[in-house]
Design goal:
This protein is α+β, with helices and mostly antiparallel strands. It is built from 9 helices and 13 strands. The strands form 5 sheets. A 4-stranded mixed sheet has the order 2-1-7-10. It is globular.
Length: about 250
């Protein structure tokens, strides 16, 4: 969960489910759109990002369980102020991206079009920008792009930086994952030569419609279709979902 200090009502600004398979060392990442319209236990229908404001990480866990039948074991709440520092430790050479057009509104900087290597605060601006025709769909796609590229750069040097990384993370992350587990996962990814990270977006393509409700504009989803897509994605043992997950990340409905 990513928290936005500017969000006065305390809603989570981004929500992802990460899955690590300790047998294959594969990593999967699911982004749940923050305007996804779901049933929040004890609070009725609302945007999924309201669950954090109503009851913190535990209510987010219960909301995911009730709507998607996925039992999430751990949580990590990230302060966006820590994102640049963590990324710079994991990917000290920066991340190359292809910026399609000028990005400036709402991110406190101007990112110019073209291929370029971004670091720290620039990457934060890149993954937070959403004032274009793709809105939050484009932002989710960029978040997955950057995290995938960061994961590709994790190597022995990153593993050696883990103690320092954990020290920095203490100031910006609230999590119930113990350091021993984090170190074990880090070693597994490096030593197991983990493949690229698979990604999925919820709602998937052709499974939702824009709707105006008493809580604002929402994504009214086909719950059964999305629950099935999520279950298949997390349970698959190979790359059969690669093509589907790529197409579902394009933002078309």
């Amino acid at each position: 969960m990513g928290s936005d200090a500017r969000d006065e009502d305390g809603r989570s600004d981004s929500l992802m489910i990460a899955h690590y398979d300790q047998t294959t060392n594969d990593v999967k990442l699911v982004s749940i759109m923050r305007d996804t319209y779901v049933d929040i236990p004890g609070h009725g229908m609302n945007k999924i990002n309201a669950a954090f404001a109503f009851g913190g990480p535990e209510l987010v866990r219960k909301t995911i369980k009730q709507n998607f039948d996925i039992d999430v074991n751990y949580y990590a709440l990230a302060d966006f102020k820590g994102f640049p520092k963590i990324v710079d430790l994991l990917a000290p050479d920066g991340i190359e991206v292809d910026i399609p057009y000028e990005m400036s509104y709402g991110i406190g900087m101007t990112l110019h079009p073209g291929k370029q290597v971004l670091h720290g605060d620039e990457l934060l601006g890149y993954v937070r920008f959403r004032h274009d025709r793709l809105s939050d769909f484009g932002r989710v796609e960029r978040q997955q792009e950057v995290l995938t590229k960061v994961k590709e750069q994790i190597g022995v040097s990153s593993l050696m930086n883990l103690p320092k990384l954990l020290g920095v993370a203490d100031s910006y992350f609230d999590t119930n994952v113990d350091n021993k587990t984090i170190l074990t996962i880090g070693k597994g990814i490096v030593n197991g030569k983990s493949k690229g990270m698979e990604t999925l977006r919820i709602p998937v393509a052709d499974s939702y419609e824009d709707k105006r409700t008493n809580v604002g504009d929402v994504l009214d989803i086909n719950l059964d279709k999305n629950k099935q897509a999520l279950e298949e994605f997390l349970s698959s043992k190979d790359n059969e979902t690669d093509d589907a997950s790529s197409s579902e990340s394009k933002g078309s409905n």
